[in-house]
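During the reporting period the student researcher (J.K.) took over the structure-prediction task from the postdoctoral fellow and processed the backlog of single-chain submissions. One of the processed entries is reproduced below for the supervisory committee.
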Amino acid sequence: MNVAAIVSTTAAASLRLPYHRNPHRYSRFGFVFWSSYYSCWKRKRRISMSGISNFLPPSAAISTYSSDATTEMESQAVPKPKQQQQWLIVGLGNPGRKYQGTRHNVGFEMLDAIAEANGISVSSVSFKALVGKGFIENVPVMLAKPQTFMNSSGESVGAIVSYYKIPLKQVLVIFDDLDLPFAKLRLLPKGGHGGQNGMRSIIDHFKGSRDFSRLRIGIGRPPGKMDPVNFVLRPFNKQEREELDFTFERGVEAVRILLLEGFNKAATYVNSDKPVEQLG
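J.K. obtained the following structure tokens:
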């Protein structure tokens, strides 16, 4: 007879309890008697099982541990992966066909490039914005294009940050900048609004806090004595559009580096005039 059969037979024998047609008919003396008998039976069963375990191989002896203990050991052996915090990436601009392709809407266009590169649809309407959720590699992101018009962007962005409780260190705002040469990018960890009314509105709705990242896209200064208001609403010519497309590609990569490798590496990449292959 093999070891498994011995275990099975002995365990079954040890589990037999005395049979009685009607156990409720026990007298007080009978109850004490059977309680004592049951205690002896349990002691005998422990002794018999411990004796049999001496004949079992180590693998069989290990299996006598409780399943709860095994589960606990397994959970300790495999640590849970750390959950990534969600980022909010905002592109500023004005809604409507009238403003499509204008200098003031490069924030929208950069966000569209990020969404396309990562397969995220920015089509849901929420908090006065077009929004989309997805991942940039393994980092969860929410992309947003406020539809409040530029000067009231903070109404939308402030509501999103408040509702989802997104830390300001996990917020990136992308917008046009008159003070940067055309198609240049600058990534900054914080700062003022620089006269950009969309940024002014966001800072106001953040209760004056300026501690959030921003990616500035240069659109250059207006020629001659042209009013800046008219200049930012002008479309790009063909040559400018080709140069801007390269800027969008560079911006998409900068955002990827920011989320995966941190601000310093992203700033080194995007704030340099050298191609990424020449860095380091």
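The committee noted the following: The beta strands are 87-91, 124-126, 129-136, 139-146, 171-177, 185-188, 213-218.
J.K. will present the remaining backlog at the next meeting.
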